[in-house]
Specification:
This protein is α+β, with helices and mostly antiparallel strands. 32% of the residues lie in helices and 22% in strands. It starts with 5 loop residues before the first strand and ends in a 6-residue tail after the last helix.
């Protein structure tokens, strides 16, 4: 899979989406890796779908074993 302009990077406590061209963080901290929002940003970039995905990932929490 090729790298797009947006990537998810691990940071202490979770993940953030980074704009690779601007080399700056683009979103809030997520506990789970935001694969779907990153894929949408790098593909069609439909604003409504990106917003829905980001809200969904923001509410998800890691399951404690």
């Amino acid at each position: 899979m090729s790298r797009g302009p947006y990537v998810a990077r691990g940071v202490p406590g979770g993940y953030r989406i980074w704009g690779d061209r601007g080399r700056r963080q683009w979103t809030d901290l997520y506990e789970l890796c935001p694969d779907d929002p990153v894929a949408e940003l790098n593909a069609q970039a439909d604003h409504a779908r990106i917003t829905a995905l980001m809200k969904r990932y923001r509410t998800q929490k890691r399951e404690v074993a």
